[in-house]
Design brief:
The complex is a heterodimer of chains A (about 220) and B (about 240). Chain A has one domain. Helix content of chain A is about 65%, strand content about 0%. Chain A has eleven helices and two strands; from the N terminus they run αααααααααββαα. In chain A, a hairpin with a 2-residue loop joins strand 1 and strand 2. In chain A, helix 4 packs across helix 6 and helix 9 packs across helix 11. The two termini of chain A are about 25 Å apart. Chain B has about 240 residues and is of the alpha+beta class. Chain B is about 40% helix and about 20% strand. In chain B, strands 1-2-3-4-5 form a five-stranded antiparallel β-sheet, with helices on both faces. The chains are: A mainly alpha (about 220), B alpha+beta (about 240). At the A-B interface, helix 5 of A face helix 1 of B.
């Protein structure tokens, strides 16, 4: 796949052409890292009880995927093949630690809520997956876009999950109460299942179900 | 640069690691002041919240609101040490390495508008995976717990990590650390149902036995030392 891109004619192209746009939009739907490739599920379960930390997590992952894609792509011809995985891991770790340090300094409360999960971005399969599958064989700019696209794709899913989990689990959105007290007095109760990790599995499953019923071409042919 | 030979590989690895290390060291140094400030602010807010001072700006008046004090494990006041900068976990670590080391305890005294003092105490110990710690407000009688806060570094979510939830912390309110004879018995975190008729125990967290035991142990150890000081105070100033 990568060869096709490298050998494409070097004619003058707009900065964001059709191909580039596809790099961003594909991971949002037809090639979503979470719902189609089913990568990065564990953090999708762990950090999605509330919108606010989820948003920070989505941004952190996007920054890490995009920047590590860019860095690895710049170095791709110099990286000795025998140690390429460990080099990728080093780059990812450095970026993740930087993100973690910045969160600790400027968003302390959220960094406490995300706790170990920021550090665990290092092991998020999406990051390593994009580096191996894309950045190692493509130029820096498309790699950056690919990273951004996959980060957004991941973010879109975990934000959707967090939306339903926070709304149904604690009746709030971004920490603000949205379900009126009158409803609680009428007998409505928060759904405890949404507060535990298993709740996220149900939401992710529903997401995949709805997505596939709209995009029939994603179904595997029997 | 050759990317095939051994030397090329080693040089590449060296360059990558050196650059990474330099970047991380720079980031850690630059961001340290902001991070330390956050940690200090959180500690001050925790201590103040024990006596209900939870306003967003209360921590800025920390030094006016409470009086810091450092005591040693015999209950004697130690001069020349800032209570706020004393790291209890580190003190206890030093004492496990050197049995002769005297652990120094930070404490704060809050005097409410009616002149009634409350002792704000700190406690530190170990859970299953790492450090756990807590703050306690003890009434001037040196017996009744007014409130308690616990936290942990990395206990198991849903199990040991539950010690920092309100449900767990609120169990400590109105518990007594002395028995009817006035002897120190601490408050134990135990299995089973506990209510107001059991003033020295709270419910443990099911599935979080080692963390629960850690809480019991640190309370017993640390409260004993604080009480030595508090008792010496109550003898000097007759109770109202």
């Amino acid at each position: 796949m990568s060869d096709v891109l490298v050998q494409s004619p070097a004619e003058k192209k707009p900065l964001i052409g059709k191909k580039e746009r596809k790099l961003i939009t594909d991971p949002l739907s037809d090639n979503n890292p979470v719902t189609i490739q089913v990568l990065g599920i564990c953090s999708a379960l762990a950090v999605t009880t509330q919108m606010k930390p989820t948003m920070v997590m989505a941004l952190s992952v996007t920054a890490v995927v995009a920047l590590s894609n860019l860095v690895i792509s710049i170095m791709r011809n110099a990286i000795p093949p025998r140690i390429r995985i460990i080099v990728q891991l080093t780059v990812v770790s450095v970026l993740v630690i930087l993100v973690d340090q910045i969160l600790k300094a400027y968003m302390y409360d959220i960094s406490k809520q995300l706790s170990v999960f920021v550090g665990l971005i290092i092991t998020n399969c999406i990051v390593m997956g994009r580096l191996e599958a894309y950045a190692m064989g493509n130029k820096p700019f498309p790699s950056l876009l690919d990273g951004l696209g996959n980060g957004f794709g991941y973010g879109a899913v975990i934000l959707t999950v967090a939306f339903f989990r926070e709304l149904l689990g604690s009746g709030k959105l971004f920490g603000f109460k949205v379900i009126p007290d009158a409803l609680y007095e009428a007998g409505y109760v928060n759904n405890g299942l949404m507060m535990i990790p298993a709740g996220a599995l149900f939401v992710v499953a529903c997401y995949i179900w709805i997505q596939r019923s709209f995009a029939k071409h994603l179904e595997e042919k029997e | 640069m050759s990317t095939k030979g051994n030397s090329g590989t080693i040089i590449f690895a060296l360059v990558v690691t050196t650059i990474s290390a330099a970047l991380l060291a720079a980031a850690a140094t630059i961001l340290k002041p902001a991070q330390d400030e956050n940690v200090l602010k959180e500690k001050q807010q925790n201590i103040l919240s024990l006596v209900g001072l939870t306003g967003p700006n209360d921590y800025k008046k920390f030094d006016e609101l409470v009086q810091g004090l450092v005591i040693d494990q015999e209950g004697q006041v130690v001069q020349g040490v800032q209570a706020m900068s004393l790291d209890l976990a580190l003190e206890k670590k030093l004492s496990t390495k050197n049995p002769l080391y005297k652990v120094r305890y930070p404490m704060f005294i809050y005097t409410d508008p009616s002149g009634r003092p409350t002792y704000l105490l700190q406690t530190a110990g170990t859970g299953l995976w790492g450090p756990i710690w807590g703050y306690l407000a003890l009434d001037q009688d040196g017996n009744t717990i007014r409130s308690a806060i616990f936290d942990h570094k990395g206990e198991t979510p849903g199990l040991g990590a539950e010690i920092n939830t309100d449900a767990f912390e609120q169990q400590f309110i109105q518990k007594k650390v002395l028995n009817d004879q006035g002897e120190f018995v601490s408050v134990k975190v135990e299995k089973g149902k506990h209510d107001a008729s059991m003033p020295h125990a709270v419910d443990a967290i099911s599935g979080g036995t080692i963390t629960s035991n850690g809480v019991s142990k640190m309370l017993e150890q640390d409260l004993a030392c604080y009480l030595k000081y508090i008792r010496s105070q109550t003898i000097q100033t007759p109770q109202i």
